[in-house]
Design a protein that fits this description.
The protein is of the alpha+beta class. It is built from 4 helices and 13 strands. Helix content is 26%, strand content 33%. The strands form 3 sheets. It has a 6-stranded mixed beta sheet. A 4-stranded antiparallel beta sheet has the order 1-2-5-4, with helices on one face. The chain has a 3-stranded antiparallel beta sheet with strand order 3-6-7, with no helix packed on it.
Length: 265
Amino acid sequence: MQPNDTLSRANLRRLMLAVVIVCILLAGILIYQSLRFHVVSTTPSTDNFPVNSPVLFIDFNKPLAKTTLTTIWNPGVNSTYSISGKRLTINIQSVLQTNKQYTVTIKHVASQTGDTVGDITYTLTPKDIAYSELPTEIQQAIFRGQDKNPPLGRNAITFGGTDGLISQGISTYQTEALKQAIFLFGQKTKTTITTAVIDDSTINIPPYNSDTVSDYFTMLFDLTINKTLYHATLLYGDVTTMRLQLTTGNTQVYDSGDINGATLQ
């Protein structure tokens, strides 16, 4: 056997030993991480948080002790919490704003065996997400909330700025249809709408073009619903009927279809 062959085999054995040691260390780290008290997941994902979600579920790998927790929101959000098994539920009681950044920090979380975690902090930027695309658990939570607080109807919504539309030629019939469209938007998104305010300084009436908007005249304005800003397109062809489309960012999130204001009187 040549000396070089002996050296190569020795190097190979050392390399294989090093690989085994690394694998053992990695396995040990994985086992440690799986055994230590930690968060497994959140629902919804904090990276894709729906603006109308009434809850944040945080699931751990061990059953939780029912201790007193501290929850801090920045900016301020009213919330409560409950503990069941391995799940911590944060119940959101304030109306969140689309595309506004919130930070929530949870302190003093402990397991039933006495393990603790440091402060848990999440950053949320709520988004408008179609109800059909929400996680099943969030859909169920929204329905449960509606059962406790069913929508009261469009007359329970505080509207502002409709006089500006009337001054631009929209009829009272059409403003009633607009109110109904906004209420239906709340039903579609499973949200209880409390306020809807039109910024009359943004009202714009583009020149009519039958080639692009057949059978409709168009009015554009900004509309704030529950503190979330939308760009509204009002389409109308007569003094009773109107159609509302809402856009946030560059995405249309709602189209009411035609609503006849005369039938709402």
